[in-house]
Amino acid sequence: MTRPRSEVQAKPGRNCPLSYRYSPRVFNSAPRFESETLYVVGGLYGNVEALQTVLAMRQAELRRGCSVTLMFNGDFNWFDVDADSFASINQVVLEHAAICGNVEMELGAPSGAAGCGCAYPDEVSDAVVRRSNRIMQRLYSQAVNFPDILQRLAVLPMYATVAVGGHLIGIVHGDAHSLAGWDFAAENLVHRIGQAQAVSLRDKLAATFQQARVSAFCSSHTCLPVAFALDVDGRKRLIINNGAAGLPNFRDTTFGLLTRISARPDVPPGSLYGIDLGGLRCDALPIRFDHLAWQRRFLRNWPAGTDAHASYFARIMHGPDFELTQAMRDGDVQEKALLLQPSCD
């Protein structure tokens, strides 16, 4: 579970500043906007090719008669340490609805003690944390050349409530309590130990939904995807974490993921898994970006021997040690229940 923060208050990269925190009750509010279909795109990590593919996917939906609103839920920057990539990513993303991730928070309004702002738990090694802090420093050294962009990042909200098909959706980067929270991580929602712990987790999540009064939370931040459904007060609710739009999310794959939320009941083309929440269709869609072009762009900025190469290049090439079937859970049925059988996509 999440690392006890009292033990790490002074450790950059593990520290979770008080300014990152909020109550689940903030989501019980008027929606920022309404949409028939929403793409929630978290963790682009500066992948220009993935962003281009998301825009193309939106256009393909429009040609099928479906209007899509884009919502970027943070960490759209990370590897984009060259001027062209940084400018391109931010100019496009900031034309659409967005909230900040810890990366954007530490670019636009640096907290000082948070380092990269990831609030990494114990399971993440100190070496990874140190590398992430140095990646953040290098990115910031490029970002200061774009003061207008930094000003726009500084005023991004940490969360949002939006409406889709009469349902309220909580948009977060981390979880319902913190910008960099790990409660919605696959490590917490999937890798539980013991039935008592599972019951405790469901009770905690049920209380969160009761305070927030949303049908679903869409998150990212923790870099592995998960869709976790549970009954709260007689209604099915959902936590859906897209992992990363700009990185592979499953072993031996090369595509990113986004979350599609729609008032349309049909299963969208290419859906890997999903669920219907009383007329609200929620799916994980693959982002099949030009992997070779992205690999070349990454290596120009982060060749062998650099921090990002050490932390991420193996995942870029081979995906993480995580399977598609691990991402799909119904918390009220059994530990390994699928929400939707994987398609042949």
How would you spell out the order of helices and strands?
EEHEHEHHHEEHHEEEEEEHHE
Question: What is the overall number of helices?
Answer: 9
Number of domains as seen in the coordinates: 1
- Please state the CA-atom Rg, rounded to the nearest Å: 19 Å
Spatial sequence of strands, sheet with the most strands: 1-5-6-7-9-8-13
Biggest β-sheet strands, sense, barrel? 7 strands, mixed
Portion of residues in beta strands equals 15-25%
Query: What is the CATH topology assignment?
Result: Purple Acid Phosphatase, chain A, domain 2
Percentage of residues in helical conformation:
25-40%
Structural class label: alpha/beta
- CA-based shape: globular
How far is it from the N-terminal to the C-terminal residue, by CA? 33 Å
The total of beta strands comes to 13
